[in-house]
């Protein structure tokens, strides 16, 4: 996590390659009668570098593409192992069994990703990533805010999540993509004219959806508390904070109690 700012900075530098290609007058390769903009950077390398160094640059592109793919496959594998395999399929799984299951799940995800690239339209992967960003953002109130406060009622958070997903999917459905002729799910930038406003300005769908999510959660929380809705218990246990702690590490201090030191 400490390296993420540097990683993001490097991503910005990589984006500058596209501007370099435009400044150099590089044209993307043509596929099926259409210019494939994904080829603009490789075309830049091909025309600006000698053959041997262009090969090195192409290899760097391939290796760089594997980095986020590996991270996402590992994350998906851990998600499956901890939340499905251990929770529902084998509750007494040992750490070694969890590791083996994660490795197999990661391999399945990688194979599935390759099949998606070979068998489906590549534009689908781009659209799915944009849609996924909007949808995963709706977990912000229920997950992130729940770490800091329990004021928001769980029923309200669940309803807000559903409302945010509905608003997000509804707005995404209205967005066309003129580049490929798709009438729906053509991106995550919503033109205000689609909502009947006399404006061509665009707004990020996830921002609008998460605002609707928060609004529903806050308003419904107020209504539920005034109506005397039952407070759901906090299922967090003390052992949850020490599940990965070394066996000889001192236990955490109880809430509101100063931590003790050896010899007290």
Write a compact overview of the structure shown.
The protein is mainly alpha-helical. It has helices spanning 4-24, 40-48, 51-89, 95-119, 122-137, 140-148, 154-174, 205-226, and strands at 30-31, 34-35, 189-191, 202-204.
What does this structure look like?
The protein is 61% helix and 4% strand. By secondary structure, it is mainly α. The protein has a domain at 122-231. Strand 1 (30-31) and strand 2 form a beta hairpin. The protein starts with a helix and ends in a 38-residue tail after the last helix.
The parts where pLDDT drops under 50 for at least 5 residues are: 255-264
Compute the average pLDDT: 84
Q: What share of the residues lie within helices?
A: 55-70%
The largest beta-sheet arranges its strands as: 1-2
Topology diagram in text:
Elements: H1 4-24, E1 30-31, E2 34-35, H2 40-48, H3 51-89, H4 95-119, H5 122-137, H6 140-148, H7 154-174, E3 189-191, E4 202-204, H8 205-226
Antiparallel strand pairs: 1-2, 3-4
Helix pairs in contact: 1-2, 2-3, 3-4, 5-8, 7-8
Features of this protein?
mainly alpha, 8 helices, 61% helix, two-stranded antiparallel ribbon
């Amino acid at each position: 996590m400490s390296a993420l700012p540097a990683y993001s900075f490097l991503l910005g530098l990589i984006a500058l390659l596209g501007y370099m290609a435009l400044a150099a007058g590089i044209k993307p390769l043509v596929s099926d009668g259409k210019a494939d903009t994904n080829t603009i950077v490789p075309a830049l390398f091909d025309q600006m570098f000698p053959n041997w160094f262009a090969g090195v640059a192409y290899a760097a592109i391939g290796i760089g593409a594997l980095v986020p793919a590996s991270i996402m496959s590992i994350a998906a594998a851990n998600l499956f192992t901890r939340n499905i395999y251990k929770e529902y399929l084998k509750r007494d799984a040992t750490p070694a069994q969890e590791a083996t299951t994660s490795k197999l799940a990661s391999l399945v995800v990688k194979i599935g990703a390759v099949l998606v690239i070979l068998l489906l339209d590549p534009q689908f992967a781009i659209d799915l990533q944009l849609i996924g960003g909007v949808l995963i953002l709706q977990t912000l109130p229920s997950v992130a805010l729940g770490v800091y406060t329990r004021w928001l009622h769980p029923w309200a958070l669940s309803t807000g999540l559903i409302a945010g997903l509905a608003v997000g999917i509804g707005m995404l459905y209205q967005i066309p993509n003129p580049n490929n002729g798709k009438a729906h799910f053509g991106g995550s930038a919503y033109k205000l004219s689609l909502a009947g406003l006399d404006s061509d300005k665009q707004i990020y769908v996830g921002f609008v959806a998460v605002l609707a999510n928060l609004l529903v959660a806050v308003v419904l929380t107020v209504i539920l508390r005034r109506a005397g809705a039952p407070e759901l218990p906090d299922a967090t246990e003390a052992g949850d904070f020490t599940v990965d702690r070394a066996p000889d590490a001192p236990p955490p201090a109880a809430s509101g109690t100063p931590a003790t030191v050896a010899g007290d």
